[in-house]
Amino acid sequence: MTKGPGASVYMPPEASAPAKSNAQKSKYDSSIDVFSLGVVAIFTIGEVFPCDPLEPNYLNDETGLLVARTELQRRSEYMRHVNEQLRACGQLRGDHPLIRLIQQCLHNGPHKRPSIREVLRLLEEARAGARDSGWEEVQAAQTQPRSQSLERDLQSHVQELHQQLQSRNQENADLHSSVQELHFRNQAKDRELAEAQQQLRQKEEELARQGAELTRAEETTR
């Protein structure tokens, strides 16, 4: 799972600027990886490297003001290649699930992007839609291997991200368990130290008492 900004072409808006503090770094989560998946999907399906030269803002002719582009607007030229490739495969029939998936992954708002599990579900829906449309039977000899390869690549990438997320969660759980164990050990050490100090005080008091008795006995014999 991404823990900080990487290559700018794969990064969403919230990661485009350097983190100002550790608190800001902690906001990086799997939504960044989902955004990167949308970029990888453009590269995989559209066969173009999605390095957008457009500025993040554009001049509105009506108001004369600079308006922020959404990520989909900035990458619209590359989405056109995705449409063309799906059309060439005979899969583009209206609002294709893969198009919707990429659009959702590239949403500007991190909380509006699908989770890893939702991405897996959408990929399964896209595959089921291809089967139900009858396209697989018609284009099997020519385009089915390519289509399935694209979906396998995307699904493999998503599963890898999901496994990384599970691994990181397990690492956090193991770390939490280690911290708790260390805390318990420290408590046990503290108890042992307190008991040793108590025994030492008791011995010191016993020695002081014996010394006092010895002094009195010597004074009596004089």
Topology (elements, then pairings):
Elements: H1 22-25, H2 30-46, E1 57-59, E2 66-68, H3 71-74, H4 76-88, H5 97-105, H6 116-132, H7 135-139, H8 144-221
Antiparallel strand pairs: 1-2
Helix pairs in contact: 2-4, 2-5, 2-8, 5-6, 6-8
Description:
With 222 residues, this protein is mainly α. It has one domain (8-178). 66% of the residues lie in helices and 3% in strands. The chain contains eight helices and two strands; from the N terminus they run ααββαααααα. It has helices at 22-25, 30-46, 71-74, 76-88, 97-105, 116-132, 135-139, 144-221; strands at 57-59, 66-68. A two-stranded antiparallel sheet has the order 1-2. A hairpin with a 6-residue loop joins strand 1 and strand 2 (66-68). Helix 2 crosses helix 4 (76-88). The longest helix has 78 residues, at 144-221. It is rod-shaped and about 120 Å long. It starts with 21 loop residues before the first helix and ends with a helix. The model has no long low-confidence stretch (mean pLDDT 73). Residues 1-127 form the Protein kinase domain. Residues 182-194 have a biased composition (Basic and acidic residues).
